Amino acid sequence: MNLGIWFALHTVFRRTTAVSWGWLHADIPEITTFDPFAGVLVLFALMAMFVLRRGMAWTLAATASIGAAWTLAVR
Questions:
Q1: Domain span including residue 8
Q2: 64 and 46, same domain (yes or no)
Q3: pLDDT value of residue 1
Q4: What is the distance between the alpha carbons of residues 51 and 58, in angstroms, rounded to a whole number?
Q5: Roughly how many angstroms between the first and final C-alpha of the chain, as a whole number?
Q6: Are 39 and 28 part of one and the same domain?
Q7: Can you give the pLDDT at residue 5?
Q8: Helices 36-50 & 2-12, crossing angle to 10 degrees?
Q9: Which chain regions cross the lipid bilayer (predicted)?
Q10: How far apart, in whole angstroms, are the C-alpha atoms of residue 29 and residue 20?
């Protein structure tokens, strides 16, 4: 779960700030660096898995394909 949260934060937000409270370390996202396209992909993935009951492999393939197409179209 820790790795999933880490990847989500670093995908949806372009910049995070490392914060430490004694033995506890966390990355706090900078809200102004929110990536709207990544946010839409997250919502699509959640809907695919929990509403449409698609599997992990299908969801990963679909979101990776959409993300790659978007990246190629924008650049």
A1: 1-33
A2: yes
A3: 78
A4: 14
A5: 32
A6: no
A7: 85
A8: 140
A9: 34-52
A10: 14
